[in-house]
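Incident review: delayed structure delivery

Summary: a single-chain prediction request sat in the queue longer than the usual turnaround. Root cause was a stuck worker, restarted by the on-call engineer. No data loss occurred. The affected request and its eventual output are reproduced below so the record is complete for anyone auditing the incident later.

Affected input:
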Amino acid sequence: MTFPDITSDLRAAAPALRGRLLANHDMAGLTWFRVGGPAQVLFTPADEDDLALLLSVLPADIPVTVVGLGSNLIVRDGGIPGVVIRLGGKAFGEIVLEDGDRLRAGTAVPDVKVARAAADASLDGLAFYRGIPGCIGGALRMNAGAHGGETTDVLVEARGVTRAGVIVTLGHAQMGFTYRNSATSTHEIVFTSALFQGRPGEQAAIQAEMDRVTAAREAAQPIKERTGGSTFKNPPGGKAWQLIDAAGCRGLRLGGAQVSEMHCNFLINIGGATAADVEGLGEEVRRRVKENSGFDLQWEIKRVGVVG
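Output delivered after worker restart:
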């Protein structure tokens, strides 16, 4: 699918814009699944003010989608209409240590780099980010967590830009964190940085914890495959992978997509998969689990765009 090119209209509305606007940009190469159609416009802002400028002039009827590292994302084959915002570069990729055992990170920073920076500074409490294959922006949106820690445990505040182009700061309570979710919507605010609270620790002990997380992840998850991380949330009173396994879905295939043999809460692109294959396989897993156990699995992976 090819969308109408609206980049010239956006440039005309914001002539001082410094970031990149790319029309009909391929999104498959920006996701870990390596599937999906184009973004009507991919915008990479120069900095927070540049982001605010575009959002302030963007017509209300043009949808906005925010993507990060693409590790927890299915872009549908028809592509994403409107403006897709992808943060990057120094403006959104810095990590700064602050007084009071705090660390501030841009939302384009990979979670693992936050864990490493905290360990290097002997700052405990953030090692769990070593096991999350995404960036800080996604962690804020979905209250990312692993190995006994969650974003809600360490976040002090998050800064971002509203759909109207206003720069705001939200305290922890305003984030409305729940299990693998928050009360904020990426359609309402684009997060640009986050402030985390750590605690003094021993560098060797923190590094040992990170090594444990790394080893556990490598032993149990298909991290070298084209995948998207955990596919479904754990339902109350159950484990998603156990329910999927009990429903006979381990190794199940649809087109070029397969339920991982190694960890059956992971879907993988074994070669030539379309987004429809991946999402369709996920829906078939949901159907079989519901039929077998009564549990209604909910997607943890974000699915965006239109069906091709």
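Verification: The first strand starts at residue 20 and ends at 26.
Action items: add queue-age alerting; document worker restart procedure.
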